[in-house]
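#struct-help
A.M.: can someone run this one for me? Single chain, 640 residues.
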Amino acid sequence: MSSNVQSQPPQSASAPGPAPVVDVEQAEAALVEHYPRLVRLAYLVLPPSLGRNRRVLTAHALTQRSLPRGRKPGVAVAIPAQQGGGHRRDPGYAYVRLQVVRGALDAGLPLTWRSWPRRAQLPPLLPQVKGLRLFPRSGGADELALDQRLAKLSGAARAAYVLRGLEALDDAGVRMVLTAAGCDDPDDALAEADAVEARYALLASPEFDPCSLHARPTDLMRRRQHLKAAGVAALATLVCGALLGLPGDGWGPDGAAAPPYAQNPAAQAALDPGKLTVAATGAWRRSARTDFSVWPARGGLVDDKALLRRALAVWARPGETVQVSATPGTPSGAPPGPAQLLYAGEVDAARVVLLYDGLRIVRYAEPKEGTSGAALDFARVDGASGPEASALVVNRADGNVRYLTAPWVRSAAVRDLLKPAGQALALRRDADGVTEPFAGPAQSGRCTSWNALRMRDHSGAVRMVTDLGELTPARLTAGRPEAPREAAPADWTKSACSLASVRSHGVRSVNSWAYARQTLPETGAAAQWVCTRAETWRGAGSRSLAQFQTADGPTGAVAAKAEDSPACGPREPRVLAGVRWKSPGGNWYLLGAGSKDVTSLTASGGDQVQGNVLAVSTERTARARLTGTLADGTKVATLR
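D.P.: on it. Structure tokens below:
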């Protein structure tokens, strides 16, 4: 392409009156007639930092996009005065020139994250040149020096210089064009342009003619490397697509699950909702044991394969948005094989699925609308049977809890352990065994009540469990550790609030053992010593708590506690603890008590008594230590 003769700018003089109206045909005629000059104008105003190839293509793109959009009747445009006026006015040229200047100024603006880029700031869609670099013919030293000086100017100042030199506009005309193009301060632009020597004749040099171009190839070695990289990427995409398209993706979307990374046959079988195992409805009646393996599948969504597929997929690959929780010592990995379906249905505002793999109970929950905010909970239940497999937490909301009860449970009720004389509140259950919601134990603040779930099974036996923040409620028992019995509310009246200390600890059962009774000095009132021991599903992490309870106190005072100690348990069914007590008369006593196998007690001051209880006068600040002796002479230390 070449243009050795530049069209002269249409001359016009400012005149009073309304601005002339330009239609599309008039603007197009001016664009075709003065195309080389308009492209040169755009090229000069564009920032040289774009590089000559992109600068050339952008100059042509801006000029070609300068026509009015649509087929509107016309656009009004003001025509600035030019030096040497007297020629005809050309509104069409004035319009397209204004659009070219506006686009070139926009193209020079820096890209920021605060706003969307303007069209001129992006690489042009058309014209496009592939495999070639285009640039104008090289000029002399004067043109190079001028180009370097213009590169240091702002876009508006560069436009002012070019409008003066190439378009022969006076300062008033330049100011009018810059203002119409969106320049905030044309006067500053004119002042900045004054700093460059007025060598306007150089603007018509071939150095600045984007219509007379040289062509050279792009970097051939880099192009070859890019082609190789594109080929490798395309091949990798095809391979990944083939792997992901293997059988197994026809169950519907995986919801909140992360992308699958392997197609192991055993792992895929565990994700197939059609291979979930289901116990027969009356299997528990014929089974030698009553555990989770004989629970039938219940709920209104047991046939919803899409929901079950999502639950299994999230279990295997929980995504970043899934809230995952597990009781201490419970693995949270993928299922080792097809799991057993226990429940699938709608509970409150969620869809809930309960699964059992022989070791763990897994609860998947998602909102009724969509799968965002899905939750996945794990609880270890190995060896659970009878009372320990009688109920599962199916949902918690607003401090209330719902249970799914075992098929052998005949009735359910709520008992407040702090009110043993109160009546049990019967709980309604639906056809699937899901209880109505009731208030769970308070997680913070004062302990004014502690609700437990009381269940009666088909044999008439009554069990009590309580919610400790996990999927499986903790079984409550009472009596000697080696032979505990099912607890009654009176066994936990003064100890129930201490259950908060083992919340979310993976507790399997908690036993309350009143191991000693004592008559208080001075008053003759009765007091008892109670040891509560929480056993965990994992075995380790048991917690024992010795409490001193008086008849007039609402709760017991913690005298000693221990973790991972066999004391107060079936392996060592003995305990020893002491406490300083202030009588109503203001006197301080050291009180101590051991289990019945403790035959004598000795205080650090030398006081010794025969039997398993001790009460000696002491000072408030005195530090005392108790030691017990068994019948065979073995020494026993206090619980710690």
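A.M.: thanks! Residues 1-7, 11-17, 84-88 have pLDDT under 50 and may be disordered.
D.P.: also worth noting: Residues 417 and 496 are 7 Å apart (CA to CA).
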